[in-house]
Amino acid sequence: xxxxxxxxxxxxxxxxxxxxxxxxxxxxxxxxxxxxxxxxxxxxxxxxxxxxxxxxxxxxxxxxxxxxxxxxxxxxxxxxxxxxxxxxxxxxxxxxxxxxxxxxxxxxxxxxxxxxxxxxxxxxxxxxxxxxxxxxxxxxxxxxxxxxxxxxxxxxxxxxxxxxxxxxxxxxxxxxxxxxxxxxxxxxxxxxxxxxxxxxxxxxxxxxxxxxxxxxxxxxxxxxxxxxxxxxxxxxxxxxxxxxxxxxxxxxxxxxxxxxxxxxxxxxxxxxxxxxxxxxxxxxxxxxxxxxxxxxxxxxxxxxxxxxx
Length: 309
Ligand SMILES: [Zn+2]
Ligand SMILES: [Zn+2]
Prior knowledge:
The chain is α/β, with parallel strands linked by helices. The protein is built from 10 helices and 18 strands. The strands form 4 sheets. Strands 3, 4, 5, 9, 10, 17 and 18 form a 7-stranded mixed beta sheet that branches. Strand 15, helix 8 (244-249) and strand 16 form a beta-alpha-beta unit. The longest helix is centred in the middle third of the chain and has 13 residues, at 137-149. The protein is globular, with a radius of gyration of 19 Å. The two termini are 12 Å apart. The structure holds zinc ion (2 copies). One zinc ion is lined by residues 81-82, 84-85, 87-88, 93, 96, 98.
């Protein structure tokens, strides 16, 4: 089978062996995968990554212990937790210290003709939901995670910094929650995709930093009201420098936020309230992953999909 391989910043497509399916895991044939900023960061050296990336996917189950799964379209939670530790018992397998992560930490990713995941990670894609929409489940889950971490009151003004892929999803999720969302970025026309206001100079109690850049956090701290919160969503390779004095003096809460539960995200996508199709800027066959990565890394480009044809 063909799989995308990242090594020392190079993206290539390689023939690779299909490893035996571990017990409890399903063998999934990729239908479509999405290139996310994290994949581009992995290419740049985040986590000193070598191997097959990819964690946003929709696929079809080919083999599984549970017969009823076979032939079904699925998406899958990306963290493979041990299931036995304290974190796992608290339902927080996403923080299991011995977890592996699909396409990020010690588990071959989805940019491959076939992949495996524990059956317990899988969610069935409703028939009405196209794979091109279901492939957004993981980033939508990351957007929904914010509201699991902080209770932002309905009607509250919120600034979302960054009008890239994640910023647009966060803006939409917060708007649906009832927030008054102001979107800041380099593409004012994108506020329309998310159905929110274009950001103007102002200060906020709530700021979501999703610029994907090292400079974003500094801007967020400069815009937040005393006692306000900055929710940090950018995964940036390398260190980010900030002046902690402003954070301390103004008693600002800095909150890290990563991926979330798939179930609410999939429901939200199924309900049709999110505009994701306008975020698809290009698609390539899996075998042209190198070109697809280049395209995805181009400034101003939103989601690039990889099709397993
Ligand atoms: Zn992602
Ligand atoms: Zn665990």
